[in-house]
Design brief:
Strands 6-5-9-2-3-8-7 form a seven-stranded antiparallel sheet. Strands 12-13-14 form a three-stranded antiparallel sheet, covered by helices on one side. The chain is built from four helices and 16 strands. It is 22% helix and 29% strand. It is elongated, with a radius of gyration of 23 Å. With 280 residues, it is an alpha+beta fold.
C-alpha cells in the first residue's frame, strides 16, 4: 500500500477551488510526483534491535523493508523508514531518541530526526523531513541495502544518563531505611531524574532543609562509593525479558547503558522534591 497524505493545514475546505500556486495545488503536485514506488506494507518483519546487544555500535548495514513519504506544505516531505535491523534507539523507557542518518550510495542521505516503536507491530520507524529532490532519489529503495549511522556523542550521553538513573536506584536502596520503590525515570539531558514511590516508606519533610540535606548527602555518599567500587553492568534475558543489573540492583530495561559503573564519575544529586506524593 502507498501511504501518501497531506498535513491538515495544507487542505482547503471541500468545494473550494484551488488557485494557481496555492498550498493545495503545490501539495497535490508533490503527491502526484511521489506516489509511485513508495511502499509501506501492511505486514512488516519485526525489527532486530542491535542496540540491545551493543551500546557502542554506532553504525551498521540494514535493508529497507518499508518506506513512505507524506507531502507537507511547501517543498518539504516527511519520510518514514522501516529496516530489517537498526542501531537507532527509539524514544521510550525514559530515554530520548537517537538521531543520525541512513545512507545509500550515490544519493542524498535521509537525516533521521526521530525514531519510534510501533508496539503492536514490533517495528521501529525512522522519521525525518527532506526535500523533493531527495524523495525522487529514494524511490524504489525497498529491498535495498543501506548504511545506518547514529550520532555517537548523543548515544554515549544517553547511555550515561540512563545508567546513572539505575545507579541512583542502587544508592537509594543502599541508604537502608527509606523503603522507596523506583517509579518513573526521565533520562533526558535536560533535567534527568528518577521518581520514587514512597508508599509505606520513610517520609521526608521537604520544608525542613536539614532533612533534605541529610537525604542528599546519604544518597550521594553511596553513589560515590559505588562508582569508586566499579563493576560490570550485566545484561541478561529472563523469560523473554531483558534485565539490566548494576551495583546489585536489577530491573527490566530496554535502554542503552555504559559497560562499567566506574564510568559514571561525576554523577551528582543536585535536587530533591515532592512530586504528587512521591519523591523526585
Amino acid at each position: 500500500l502507498v501511504r501518501i497524505g497531506l498535513a491538515p493545514e495544507a487542505l482547503l475546505d471541500v468545494g473550494q477551488h484551488s488557485q494557481p500556486g496555492s498550498p493545495q495545488e503545490k501539495a497535490d503536485e508533490v503527491s502526484a510526483e511521489i506516489s509511485d514506488g513508495l511502499v509501506m506494507p501492511d505486514v512488516l518483519p519485526a525489527t532486530r534491535r542491535l542496540f540491545l546487544h551493543d551500546t557502542y555500535l554506532f553504525e551498521s548495514a540494514a535493508t529497507v523493508v518499508g518506506l513512505s513519504f507524506c507531502a507537507m506544505e511547501g517543498d518539504k516531505v516527511k519520510f518514514s523508514v522501516a529496516l530489517d535491523q537498526t542501531v537507532f534507539h527509539y524514544q521510550g523507557g525514559g530515554q530520548p531518541t537517537d538521531t543520525g542518518c541512513i545512507l545509500r550510495s550515490g544519493i542524498p542521505p535521509l537525516v533521521v530526526q526521530s525514531v519510534w516503536l510501533c508496539k503492536t507491530r514490533d517495528v521501529v520507524f525512522h522519521d525525518g523531513v527532506v526535500d523533493q529532490t531527495t524523495v525522487q532519489a529514494w524511490q524504489n529503495s525497498v529491498g535495498s541495502e543501506v548504511w545506518c549511522r547514529i550520532d555517537e556523542q548523543s548515544r554515549r550521553l544517553h547511555a550515561r544518563l540512563h545508567s546513572s538513573g539505575h545507579l541512583l536506584d542502587a544508592a537509594v536502596t543502599a541508604v537502608g531505611d527509606l523503603g522507596w520503590t523506583p517509579g518513573k525515570g526521565y533520562h533526558f539531558p535536560s533535567g534527568a531524574y528518577v521518581e520514587y514511590v514512597v508508599g509505606a516508606g520513610k517520609k521526608i519533610n521537604m520544608s525542613i532543609a536539614s532533612e533534605k540535606e541529610q537525604l542528599i548527602n546519604a544518597v550521594q555518599s553511596h553513589i560515590d562509593r559505588l562508582v569508586a567500587l566499579g563493576g560490570a553492568v550485566e545484561v541478561t534475558e529472563r523469560q523473554g525479558m531483558r534485565v539490566v543489573k548494576m551495583a546489585g540492583e536489577a530491573c527490566p530495561c530496554g535502554g542503552t547503558h555504559v559497560k562499567d559503573v566506574g564510568e559514571l564519575t561525576g554523577l551528582k544529586v543536585t535536587k530533591v522534591k515532592n512530586s504528587s506524593g512521591n519523591i523526585r
